Predict the structure.
Amino acid sequence: MAEHTPVLLDEVLAGLAIRPDGRYCDATFGRGGHTAAILAALGPTGRVVAIDRDPEAIRAGQRRFAEESRLTLVRGSFGPLEERVRAAGVEGELDGVLLDLGVSSPQLDEASRGFSFMQDGPLDMRMDNEAGQSAAQWLARAGEREIADVLRELGEERFARRIARAIVAARATAPVIRTGELAAIVAAAVPTREPGKHPATRTFQAIRIHLNGELEALQSALPQAVRLLSAGGRLCVISFHSLEDRIAKRFIRREEQGDPVYAGLPNVPPHARPRLRRMGGAIVAGEAEVAANPRARSAVLRVAERLAA
Ligand SMILES: C[S@@+](CC[C@H](N)C(=O)[O-])C[C@H]1O[C@@H](n2cnc3c(N)ncnc32)[C@H](O)[C@@H]1O
């Protein structure tokens, strides 16, 4: 069975400050590593709602937690977070929300999912591979300018224009439908090499983030998570690249400050008051965890506490 090692597990449990009778949402279930640890810390009346848009993640979760009545698994994007939590039959407030962003090891390791330039497979890259367009379909239709913009903005790729030009030239001969083909086109178009990094890393990241609307889902879910939390409830966000981390960091900072329109005024209405308190700064994995799980190397955890309205 495909495995996923949860990152920053102790740090997440400490960040969530689990209460035995609490109600938690794991918005990125994956293979349930964090969910299992949360359940283990909960008593019989505790509850977890776990969400994933990947049908295979949900199927694996249903098998693994078949006997677990405190868990409800919900298939879908966490973009409409409040709707998903309510669909699980949970009314009222939550004590914690976890977002462990990006892709899981099984998604990366399974060549047929098309996320990896390390092994050849169909160029898919959809987290929900039963909906939406695949990377191959997008690359067949997108204009050169659009491809370049995605690579630059979501991959921070300095050779975005060259790569886009090479893709458009290649598809004039034959459609680009395999991860191996795309990796080779990118490798040939990129003139320099970053140590320890495949030249197609940024391109694959950018296309994946674009196709799955990853940043939009995060932007949409964060304010909903705050609305769902009770006073003292915790928000934990683990990101794996700077674009996501920036969104999480700025969101928490804004929520700490409240509405700037009322800055310095004596009477601040409830809706304009700070809603979050940052619990420390960026938390990263220690040496031992990185040695045991290289995926943890780029993980950054941010924790915030919901303030009373
Ligand atoms: C890093 S993995 C989570 C691993 C999990 N914490 C564990 O310990 O097994 C990220 C998971 O979130 C899912 N995911 C990413 N973006 C999502 C979104 N917008 N909505 C729902 N699930 C999403 C992916 O399908 C993937 O399974």
User: Anything to note?
Assistant: The first helix runs from residue 9 to 16. The longest strand covers residues 229-239. The chain has 13 helices and eight strands. Residues 4, 6, 28, 30-34, 51-54, 57, 77-79, 100, 102-104, 127, 214, 217 surround S-adenosylmethionine (CB under 6 Å).
